[in-house]
Design a protein that fits this description.
Largest sheet: 5 strands, antiparallel
Shape: globular
Order of helices and strands: HEEHEEEEEEEEEEEEHEE
Number of strands: 16
Oligomer: single chain
Strand content: 35-45%
Distance between the termini: 49 Å
């Protein structure tokens, strides 16, 4: 009987130790300490917190935005112990996820005390993360990805110009650019929840016409030239004007049939960029 009791006791101790080890492995997290090191601690957001949303990276792994019982937000990738903290956020949501170049760019909209709109720009490649904090506290930005998928623009209104953050090649550049045609910097809101521009970019038809097409006006009629007077036969003087008239017609054959100059139909030039400077990121290695 004593042997059985000892066996049962040892079994329960082993089971409890296994459960505790699983809890520690699952609920363990490392966060930056602000001095280049990390702090090891219990991941309360994983154990007792609330998942807000998930997103998928280019390599197929998932990331999760979480909120712990104390109201602190962070992002954790699957198969990674270390987390990305959103230290000053009192609210947070994933606003946009785009694959740009070799990384997945995740833009998290947060609210801080005294700041209604703050944005964390996170560029993930595996467990390597680049993090920037941007925003003017009063506007949502418009986010556009280049057609080749190698760069991303984050535009904030700035009076009669745009303050543009350009993510490309693992860098974030800050520049001031001219406002493109059709963009109203006074629009409220400047962008919607998905960080896309609100309202039509440019009006193409007069009010009251909802066909959505621009119909060109018909060409103006050309007046027929007056018939030339018939010269008298055999007159040397009358033969000279006829030859001159024929030469003039050959020199200007149907001026109205000439195509319009190509310069008039050229697309507007891209806005010029002034004083672009790089914003240094916070670099996080989620393997450490």
């Amino acid at each position: 009987m004593t042997t059985y009791k000892n066996f049962a006791s040892a079994h329960w101790r082993t089971l409890i130790a296994g459960v505790a080890a699983g809890v520690l492995l699952t609920g363990c997290a490392m966060t930056p300490n602000g001095r280049g090191g990390v702090l090891m601690g219990l991941d309360t957001a994983e154990l007792f917190g609330t998942p807000i949303s998930t997103f998928r990276l280019r390599d197929g792994t998932e990331g999760t935005l979480r909120k712990d019982p104390q109201g602190k937000y962070s992002i954790k990738l699957s198969q990674a112990f270390r987390v990305v903290p959103l230290a000053n956020a009192i609210t947070a949501r994933v606003a946009r996820v785009e694959n740009v170049g070799e990384r997945t760019v995740v833009i998290v909209e947060t609210q801080e005390r005294g700041c209604a709109y703050r944005y964390e720009v996170l560029a993930f490649q595996g467990t390597d993360v680049l993090q920037w904090t941007v925003g003017n506290c009063k506007d949502r930005p418009r986010v556009d990805v280049a057609a080749d998928g190698k760069s991303l623009n984050i535009d904030f209104p700035n009076y009669n110009r745009l303050s543009r953050m350009i993510y490309t090649d693992n860098r974030l550049l800050n520049a001031s650019v001219a406002v493109p045609p059709g963009v109203d910097t006074r629009a409220q809101p400047f962008a919607d929840d998905a960080l896309r521009g609100t309202g039509p970019a440019i009006a193409t038809m007069p009010a009251g016409n909802d066909s959505g097409r621009v119909i060109p006006a018909p060409p103006a009629p050309t007046s027929a030239p007056a018939p030339a007077a018939t010269p008298k036969t055999g007159s040397r003087a009358s033969a000279r004007p006829r030859r001159q008239d024929t030469a003039a017609k050959a020199a200007t054959p149907a001026a109205i049939s000439l195509p319009a100059p190509r310069a008039a139909a050229a697309a507007p030039a891209a806005p010029m960029i002034f004083q672009a400077e790089e914003i240094k990121p916070v670099v996080i290695d989620l393997r450490k």
